[in-house]
Amino acid sequence: MTQTEQPHTGVGTPEDPIKTDAVIIGAGPCGLFTVFEMGLLDMKCHLIDILDRPGGQCAELYPEKPIYDIPAYPEITGQDLTDRLMEQIEPFNPVFHFQQMVEKLDQIDEQTWSLTTDIGTVFHTKVIIIAAGGGSFMPKKPPIPAIEEYENTSVFYAVRKRDQFKDKKVVIVGGGDSALDWTLNLLPDAKEMTLIHRRDEFRAHLDSVNKMRTQVEAGNMRFEMGQVKELKGENGQLTSIVVENKNKETKETTRTEIECDVLLPFFGLTMKLGPIANFGLNLHENLIPVDTEKFETSTPRIFAVGDINWYPGKLKLILSGFHEAALMSRQAFRYIYPEAKLKFEYTTSSSSLQEKLDVDEKAEKKIA
């Protein structure tokens, strides 16, 4: 039985952890291409990302912005690059764990690491690849007094368990894609839905804005212009919020109190190193030093590729991360298959690699 045929079992609890060859922290372009390089060498990968979809900065910050320095693509958007990478790694069946962040790292023995995410998912893995870009995306918190008292009880910066908003009076704040998308997605489940934005203009896709306005006109939800200035409740549970709006023409300020069980502020994301800083790795100005042969950190079996790493002459380019992933995967292979001989092959001439990539099947689909 080959490594790819072995079952990677586990539900992700401390008693029954997910067992895999490699855990990749970060599902941006470098993390996705790492799956490809690892897959060619018969290594199974699970990926963890704090976002709700793959693509990292490309998908979150500039999905429609052109990128000009990807080999063979004179111009490609961040989302298109993500889509191409997802298509490329499809034969290797990677498993994604979105809207989670690695919070704890423990060494079980010389061959195995244990990772635990902030929602309690546990992994046992032979190698770890940190591909977290500039760090973890962390939510920007609105400047509302005492908001910390309500966090993780009735104030949430991401939707991780949709059912916890069922039959609740939900208020969403923001004017971007995340705010509009979740307004529409949670609307069928919510008892009441209110969207708040400081102006009647949005940064979200026009289709989402139009759908939201249709729901408002139909009386299915409420839109309120203004900014949340005050939270009311006790013991971490909201009962209402106070929205303040200043009329530009009359200069008059109005305050409106809205009943609220759950508040979801979507004010965008910022980049921070996050819990990775506490992994016990040597750091260089909040980056992770690696060697340039294996891209291994100061700790054996933990690697770093892409913008998160540092070495003399480092260039923060996506193509640099691709190169790093290719070399890193060869050392990972030696850890996972210590008795096997590492054979170098080209995808253009290796029948075994082409079989892994389903080349014949793809060719048949093109002909059809």
3D structure, described in words:
The protein is α/β, with parallel strands linked by helices and 368 residues long. The protein has two domains: 3-137 and 270-367, FAD/NAD(P)-binding domain; 141-267, FAD/NAD(P)-binding domain. Helix content is 23%, strand content 28%. The protein has eight helices and 20 strands. It has helices at residues 29-40, 56-60, 78-89, 177-186, 206-217, 318-336, 351-356, 359-367; strands at residues 18-25, 45-49, 66-67, 76-77, 95-98, 102-109, 112-117, 122-130, 136-139, 169-173, 192-197, 222-225, 227-234, 237-246, 253-259, 262-265, 269-272, 288-289, 302-304, 309-310. Strands 1, 2, 5, 6, 7, 8 and 19 form a seven-stranded mixed β-sheet that branches. Strands 12-11-10-16 form a four-stranded parallel β-sheet, covered by helices on one side. Helix 5 links the parallel strand 11 and strand 12. Helix 1 packs parallel to helix 6 (318-336) and helix 4 (177-186) packs across helix 5 (206-217). The longest helix is centred in the C-terminal third of the chain and has 19 residues, at 318-336. It is elongated and about 75 Å long. 34% of the residues are buried. Residues 1-7 have low confidence and may be disordered.
